[in-house]
Specification:
Radius of gyration: 24 Å
Strand content: under 5%
Number of helices: 15
Mean pLDDT: 87
Number of strands: 0
Shape: globular
Helix content: over 70%
Number of domains: 1
CATH class: Mainly Alpha
CATH topology: MetI-like fold
CATH architecture: Orthogonal Bundle
């Protein structure tokens, strides 16, 4: 197990180093001068040069990269060129919206997908299975922002059960949670459809194994064998999808946060791109990359917990 963890940690560090190089290189090759964008077309050359110097844009790229990486390693992401505040403060403030939203969406998608996938696998080939597969195919095909607009029309404008947008903060937890319900559902439905189909396929493959037939021969019903033995052994692909889903939900909320006017990380990235605030874009993208890599690492640990064979191989 120690060797397995060591190998995964080495892979994690190498992935972070490669990702930082890619993120910095991609952001830096974007055309346009942030200083000229901030000052406008009629800025005096000496004023433009002074602003570029204060923003560190005149330094060589290797020095800028090393300074950026070194600052992130110590928790210093620099100051936003637009808001004139530390990027870490901006990110911490926006995470109070994005993290609960992603966590709520993941919990909803899992709560929907697990029973749906179990029912579809238990009734394979029947009308119930066909209806579930048709519904999940629709959930995968329809974009989440379209779901979002339908939810706003039905539950915010027609029935007035939830707010149509905005976020009141966490001073009133009930009001804050109500503001996240509709965007969380809009994010969760497509992910639940994917997870339910993966779980159904994994369960069907697992139920064809010899040990399942042995369990049935000992007197277990199909449902008992499915829930007691099949479910745990079908969790490996499900864990993969769950890890990918949380990463997607955390990093892929730009459209949903703009639809519902939520002050989260997705909206921060959108605003930073339009304002050419590259230090914010670089830092937030790198934070999201770190989140994806860390979730992948935790998923590997979950693999080892669910399947002891991986620990022995490690």
């Amino acid at each position: 197990m120690i060797r397995y963890l060591t190998r995964r940690l080495v892979a994690l560090v190498a992935s972070l180093g490669a990702a930082s190089l890619v993120v910095f290189a991609v952001i830096e090759v974007i055309p346009g001068d942030p200083a000229a964008y901030m000052l406008g077309l009629n800025a005096a050359p000496d004023t433009l040069a002074a602003l570029r110097d204060s923003m560190g844009l005149n330094q060589p790229l290797p020095l800028r990269y090393l300074g950026w990486v070194g600052g992130m390693a110590t928790g210093d992401f620099g100051d936003s060129w637009t808001y004139k505040v530390p990027v870490s403060d901006l990110v911490a403030d926006r995470l109070t919206v994005s993290l609960p939203l992603a966590g709520l969406a993941l919990a909803l998608s899992t709560a929907i997908a697990l029973p749906v996938g179990l029912i579809a696998a238990a009734r394979r080939g029947r009308a119930t299975d066909g209806a579930i597969m048709a519904a999940t195919q629709l959930g995968i095909a329809v974009p989440n922002f379209w779901f979002a607009m339908l939810l706003v029309s039905a539950f915010a404008l027609h029935w007035r059960l939830f707010p149509a947008g905005g976020f009141p903060g966490w001073a009133d937890p009930v009001a804050g949670l109500r503001a996240l319900i509709l965007p969380a559902v809009a994010l969760a439905l497509p992910q639940a459809a994917i997870l339910a189909r993966v779980l159904r396929t994994a369960l069907i493959e697992t139920m064809a194994q010899d040990y399942i037939r042995t369990a049935r021969a000992k007197g277990l019903s199909h449902t008992q064998a499915l829930t007691r033995h099949g479910l745990r052994n079908a969790l490996i692909p499900v864990l993969t999808i769950l890890g990918m889903q949380f990463s997607f939900l955390l990093a892929g909320t730009i459209i949903i946060e703009n639809v519902f006017s939520l002050p989260g990380l997705g909206r921060l990235i959108f605003q930073a791109i339009t304002q050419r605030d590259l230090i914010v874009v670089e830092s937030v993208v790198m934070i999201l990359v770190c989140a994806v890599i860390l979730v992948t690492f935790l998923t590997d640990l979950a693999y080892a917990t669910a399947d002891p064979r991986l620990r022995r191989r490690g």
